[in-house]
């Protein structure tokens, strides 16, 4: 069942900057958020978490503003993509490619790693409403491989998008009868359907990337492709991408990470996923360790336990999977470096 993320009215709307991310300050990412001082202030956001993603229904009777700057990105390198289904009113988005307005029936994707300014505008009846989904970009990239750093706009006249929105709405409205695994499967399916729509619609192709964005995308792709190579190094990535090691470090700083942090975090996350989805009779822990780029099973076990506070064998046996997820989220938010 959906929970209230925030509810703002005349009594508390000036506190919106500290309230819009929810009570645990866990939703969205850092930015400047404010509400127009109007005669009627009524803003409400309801959230349905599904794995690492959230489906959020936002309704407002006044204009809302959100700004994400380079400074925010340096302070908070959370890489989230937001999928917007505009139902009522307008969504004005300004970024390095200019200004565009999404109207009812339009579909938009924004990403937190590029600066932008968003204005939510009520319609003539004084209502603004959007259904949007926040999802880590690395998860969405498996379904929509295009670079989305400068945003994406599409009209909802494609049948795939209508189906995806209906699926997301059903998940949001579920009263708890759907199991978490089923909800996650439905969400992944909705992402896949959206990916099909994007790939078959040339007008949805994102705006021109900057050289820096393209270089960073090349680096991230190279690292993901060669992640299982235990000899993966900055020299290897630099040579493969045709850039200097110094420039590589600079690109990764834009993403808020270092080479070591990025590689080891990805290896551990993929190993955790592999442990969760595989049968011990089909593949051993050692094979998984080598498969994600560790040179020894012992090293893998030590690092896994250091980050997740549980060893791989216990995790595979079903002990504390929720604890592991919480520990990993806490680790990544703290920016800890694996040694």
TrEMBL record:
Transcription is among the record's keywords: yes
Residue ranges annotated for the HTH araC/xylS-type domain, each copy included: 217-318
Pfam short name (any one): HTH_18
PANTHER family for this protein: ARAC-FAMILY TRANSCRIPTIONAL REGULATOR, HTH-TYPE TRANSCRIPTIONAL REGULATOR EXSA
Listed InterPro entries: Homeodomain-like_sf, HTH_AraC, HTH_AraC-typ_CS, Tscrpt_reg_AraC-type_HTH
SMART domains per the UniProt record, alphabetical: HTH_ARAC
Sorted UniProt keywords: DNA-binding, Transcription, Transcription regulation
Gene Ontology MF terms: DNA-binding transcription factor activity; sequence-specific DNA binding
Name of the protein: AraC family transcriptional regulator
UniProt-listed Gene3D superfamilies: Homeodomain-like
